[in-house]
Amino acid sequence: MRVSLSLRGDYAVRAMLALGTAGGAAPVSARRIALQTGIPSRFVAHVLSDLGRGGLVVGSPGRGGGYRLAAPAVAIDLLQIVDAVDGSDADPRCVLRGGACQVSGRCAVHDAFASASTALRTQLRVATLAELVSRSVDGA
Predict the structure, then answer these.
(1) DSSP alpha helix (H) spans, the chain
(2) pLDDT tens for residues 72-92?
(3) Residue 140 has pLDDT above 60, yes or no
(4) Residue 94: how many other CB atoms lie within 10 Å
(5) In this structure, which CATH number among 1.10.10.10, 3.40.50.1980, 3.40.640.10, 1.10.274.10 belongs to the domain 7-137?
């Protein structure tokens, strides 16, 4: 079994790392974020829009405008970033049936996968953007 980010989640994390590294002194343009992160320019605005709706970034229009973090990096966690672009996945899906578990009861593997999902979400919740930025600056 492999745990991985969606492409949109990958782009969101990269964009947030770029904004976190910038420090918030001045807005960062979508173009600059695309160049720094390797995110295709046609996707940057979509990802930043999702992050804005999630309350994680604030955009300012016009010349000299761009994006900055909506809160200090220490107050933003990896789970918030992923949920902003991919949804919270709060609706548990049956691993065996591909939809919600049947009304008649849970499938045989429901509890094991629900526990694993909870553990993953917990780990993402404790990883702050500030910590991730620090690691990326240190080259880790």
Answers:
(1) 7-22, 30-37, 41-53, 78-86, 110-126, 129-137
(2) 999 999 999 999 998 876 555
(3) no
(4) 15
(5) 1.10.10.10
**Helix (H), strand (E) at residue 60:** strand 57-60
Give the H/E segment covering residue 57.
Answer: strand 57-60
Taking alpha carbons only, the member of 10, 3, 2 closest to residue 82 is 10
Q: How far, in Å, CA of 75 to CA of 125, rounded? A: 10
Note the pLDDT tens digit of each residue in 51-63: 999 999 999 888 8
- Count of residues making up the chain: 140
The whole-number average pLDDT for the span 92-114 is: 71
Provide the 10 A C-beta neighbour count for residue 75: 13
Report how far residue 73's alpha carbon sits from residue 77's, in angstroms, rounded to the nearest whole number.
8
The structure's pTM equals: 0.85
Cα–Cα dist 34/11, whole Å: 9
